[in-house]
Design brief:
- By secondary structure, this protein is an alpha/beta fold.
- The protein has a single domain, classed as Rossmann fold (3-Layer(aba) Sandwich), CATH 3.40.50.170.
- The protein is built from six helices and twelve strands.
Length: 221
């Protein structure tokens, strides 16, 4: 059973729209969480500004202050650990994290990625989907492991690619679906309905053999 409220630390590099969605749900009383930290690698990240306005502790750690990526990652996660989170949410955190730094958090860290994983790991997913002539695109929430965008997928949302879509229009149409997807997954985690059992996702005490899908605003098998 997950603690209530669930203590969440958010890592983000950008504007923070996914974090803003979670924050708004908490403020409406729809999400039983406590945001214990918002951490970023960029001082001007919108997520940091949102957290500061909401009175949530923030951390900005500049990678340029560290000679090695591995040193930065361990320093970052040492500070994150000090906030004692139950769950880490990577919400647009644009860094590849050292696998050894991740190990203590496996099963307690999720990421949202703008593709239908395992398709299009890494960057420029919208451009790659259009270039490939795909009929569908989407987003995935997955547990984080040492493999880049390769952890077990929890849930996905699917979007039809329209004739004439470009990278910008596709990203704009997908973004609100990403928000909806991440909120739905975090809500299930707070209810204790989602866990990682070794390398498999468990939903309502049964192994999940394929990702949950958004349907009518709800996650279904």
């Amino acid at each position: 059973m997950m603690p209530s409220p669930l203590r969440i630390a958010v890592l983000a590099s950008g504007r923070g729209s996914n974090f803003a969605t979670l924050l708004a749900a908490r403020d409406r009383g729809e999400l039983s969480v406590e945001f214990v930290l918002v951490a970023s690698d960029k001082a001007d990240a919108g997520a940091v500004q949102l957290a500061q306005m909401a009175g949530i502790p923030t951390l900005v750690l500049d990678p340029r202050d560290y000679a090695e990526r591995r040193d930065y990652d361990f320093a970052l996660f040492e500070r994150v650990a000090a906030s004692k989170p139950d769950l880490l949410v990577l919400a647009g955190f644009m860094r590849i994290i050292d696998g050894d730094a991740l190990k203590p958090w496996v099963g307690r860290m999720i990421n949202i990625h703008p593709s239908l994983l395992p398709k299009y790991r890494g960057l420029h997913t919208h451009r790659r989907a259009i270039k490939a002539g795909d009929a569908e695109h989407g987003a995935s929430v997955h547990y984080v492991t040492a493999e880049l965008d390769g952890g077990p997928v929890i849930a996905q949302t699917v979007l039809r690619i329209k004739a004439g879509d470009n990278e910008k229009t596709l990203a704009e149409r997908l973004l609100p679906l990403e928000h909806q997807l991440l909120l739905a997954v975090v809500t299930l985690i707070t209810a204790g309905r989602l866990t990682l059992d070794q390398n498999s996702v468990t939903f309502d005490n049964a192994l999940l053999h394929k990702p949950l899908r958004m349907q009518g605003g709800t996650l279904v098998r």
